[in-house]
């Protein structure tokens, strides 16, 4: 019986020792700090690693995370200066710098930071209108960080950064803003289109002006050149006609024309008299010889044309091999004309035998042909 009691006492002692050792050894994780209380009062702070404390007297009441923490708060409805409600989401980046103050100066520092953030955002946004609120994220962040840093310093916290995730106005306001934005964009598009059309019209007018100026200058130069060409052409034509007249006049005087030349020119014009589509029959009168004699006598008496020309004739150089025999041509022409007259007279008196004068151009009318 005594042995059983002894064994039970030894077991109790061993169990107590094990429990005491378990309570005296504490392991603190990395980047954390343990707060030790002795009989309910703060004693010391334990860093990362194993530590020995007095069991049943000391205990690690809190283990504080010393890393930077990120807390995202739910959207909060905030009223702007122009009485419009907006929903704002915030994100806080903070770090515990004093674990004792964070534990004993505030009951729940995360809740305290959330509430402080809400009130600060309402104070800042309450002094802005909707448009300024939507475009002043940086100023809101700066004001919120300044207030949080000042208020949380005594809580052992350090607000690293404060960010506004989103600012959502009401649905009706968003629709109105979209319409306003669309109208503004349409107005800017219309302005840009009008400016483009104006620039296009200006450039087109300038181009037309330059084109008209260039066309006028081109027409003026063309008219000037055409007038100069006409003038030069008329001058050259007049000079050519003058030289031709001078050459013909000089040739006539050099040739010293007489009655035979005038008769030859008249005989050359007789075939042209018969030309024409309406001339079907040409009757040569028997008195043509007398007419020619009268014409010759009339032309002989013309002023400036001598009856006979004495002295040698001056011929116009026609080029090598081009000087015609004028006398031979004249004789042939006279013979042809006389033969044509005789044939016409024979046809006019039928039944009369043809005489040698009708066929021989060398025998005149009423003459006897020579015998061989």
Automatic annotation (TrEMBL):
Residues 23-181 form the Band domain. GO terms for cellular component: plasma membrane; side of membrane. CDD domains: SPFH_paraslipin (cd08829). Residues 343-372 are annotated as: Disordered. Residues 343-354 have a biased composition (Low complexity). InterPro entries: Band7/mec-2_domain, Band_7, Band_7/SPFH_dom_sf, Stomatin_HflK_fam. Belongs to the band 7/mec-2 family. This is SPFH/Band 7/PHB domain protein. It comes from Nocardioides agri.
């Amino acid at each position: 019986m005594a042995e059983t009691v002894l064994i039970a006492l030894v077991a109790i002692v061993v169990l107590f020792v094990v429990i005491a050792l378990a309570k005296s050894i504490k392991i603190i994780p990395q980047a954390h700090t343990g707060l030790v209380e002795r009989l309910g009062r703060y004693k010391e702070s334990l860093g990362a690693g194993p530590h020995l404390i007095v069991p049943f007297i000391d205990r690690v009441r809190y283990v504080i995370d010393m890393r930077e923490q990120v807390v995202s708060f739910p959207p909060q409805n905030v009223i702007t200066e122009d009485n419009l409600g907006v929903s704002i989401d915030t994100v806080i980046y903070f770090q515990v710098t004093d674990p004792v103050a964070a534990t004993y100066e505030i009951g729940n520092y995360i809740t305290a930071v959330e509430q402080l953030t809400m009130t600060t955002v309402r104070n800042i946004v309450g002094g802005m209108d909707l448009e300024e609120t939507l475009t002043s994220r940086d100023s809101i962040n700066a004001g919120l960080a300044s207030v949080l840093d000042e208020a949380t310093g005594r809580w052992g916290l350090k607000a690293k950064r404060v960010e506004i995730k989103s600012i959502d106005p009401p649905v009706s306001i968003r629709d109105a803003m979209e319409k306003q934005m669309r109208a503004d964009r349409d107005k800017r598009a219309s302005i840009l289109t009008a400016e483009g059309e104006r620039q296009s019209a200006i450039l087109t007018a300038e181009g037309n002006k330059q084109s008209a100026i260039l066309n006028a200058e081109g027409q003026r130069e063309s008219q000037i050149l055409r007038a100069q060409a006409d003038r030069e052409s008329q001058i050259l034509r007049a000079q050519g006609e003058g030289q031709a007249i001078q050459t013909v006049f000089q040739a006539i005087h050099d040739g010293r024309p007489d009655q035979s030349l005038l008769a030859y020119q008249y005989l050359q014009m007789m075939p042209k008299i018969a030309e024409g589509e309406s001339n079907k029959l040409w009757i040569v009168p028997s008195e043509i010889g007398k007419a020619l004699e009268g014409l010759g006598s009339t032309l002989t008496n013309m002023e400036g044309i001598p009856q006979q020309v004495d002295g040698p004739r001056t011929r116009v150089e026609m080029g090598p091999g081009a000087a015609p025999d004028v006398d031979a041509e004249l004789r042939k022409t006279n013979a042809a004309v006389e033969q044509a007259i005789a044939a016409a007279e024979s046809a006019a008196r039928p039944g009369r035998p043809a005489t040698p004068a009708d066929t021989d151009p060398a025998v005149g009318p009423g003459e006897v042909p020579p015998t061989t």
